[in-house]
Amino acid sequence: MIANKTALVTxxxxxxxxxMAKALARQGANIVLNGFGxxxxxxxxxxxxxxxxxxxxxxxxxxxxxxxMMAAAAAEFGQVDILVNNAGIQHVAPIQNFPVERWDAxxxxxxxxxxxxxxxxxxxxQKANWGRIINVASVHGLVGSAEKSAYVAAKHGIVGLTKVTxxxxxxxxxxxxxxxxxxxxxxxxxxxxxxxxxxQGISNEAATxxxxxxxxxxxxxxxxxxxxxxxxxxxxxxxxxxxGVAWNMxxxxxxx
Length: 256
Ligand code: NAD
Known about the structure:
The chain has two domains: 6-184 and 222-255, NAD(P)-binding Rossmann-like Domain (Rossmann fold); 185-221. It is 48% helix and 14% strand. The chain contains eight helices and seven strands. The protein has a seven-stranded parallel sheet with strand order 3-2-1-4-5-6-7, sandwiched between helices. Helix 5 (149-168) links the parallel strand 5 (131-136) and strand 6 (174-181). It binds nicotinamide-adenine-dinucleotide.
């Protein structure tokens, strides 16, 4: 199905991106990793699945570095068949105190980078009449939460970009869909648990229970493995006509 195709996953040195990369590698896809985490460990974990792996350290806030990454991936593998726009950061503060520099960084990394990778990946996908673009949005692409203005704006934005990308390619073999996770216990969320525990002088366990209890009826984290399996489905022939959806995997968060 996707054996020997090439998947580029932004922000894939940890968390959801690494989970996506491993799920696609298990199906035989070669992988281009990106991100600032433990690169060697990520490369080892993916290579252990028996596929070709490369890494590019482009900073997703810098268009010229994104261009260099896309060119390097095409030079090494011929083309990017599966693009997973996953890199993301968070900053939590009320709007009146939101640092302007953090707003710009969140929008650049969580939203604008996906415009750049998508515009650069599309021509080869269109030529091949096959491609999969998967945008890792969030429940925050569908609903808001206080103190996350930049993140919620960026994630609503990427859901919009997903729809337009899907529509512009609707008569071709190129699909674009978004995945909207609720809470996933990754370094990004661990920071929010730690902040909650410190602010209230409570244990990590109590802070975790509180975090889930506030929003996620299942009281369970979604896992990177589960999200990876959804990405594999989007790449399958059964998903040929799944176009422009924002598919939540959120323990009931947005059903409320
Ligand atoms: P994470 O911190 O584990 O991973 C983020 C990845 O992005 C890392 O590899 C990091 O190095 C990379 N990254 C950060 N800034 C970058 C930059 N400027 N250039 C290149 N790479 C950069 O976090 P995660 O939770 O796995 O987040 C992945 C995606 O999932 C994000 O888009 C996030 O918004 C989204 N998401 C996460 C959750 C959750 O609960 N964890 C929920 C919904 C959506």
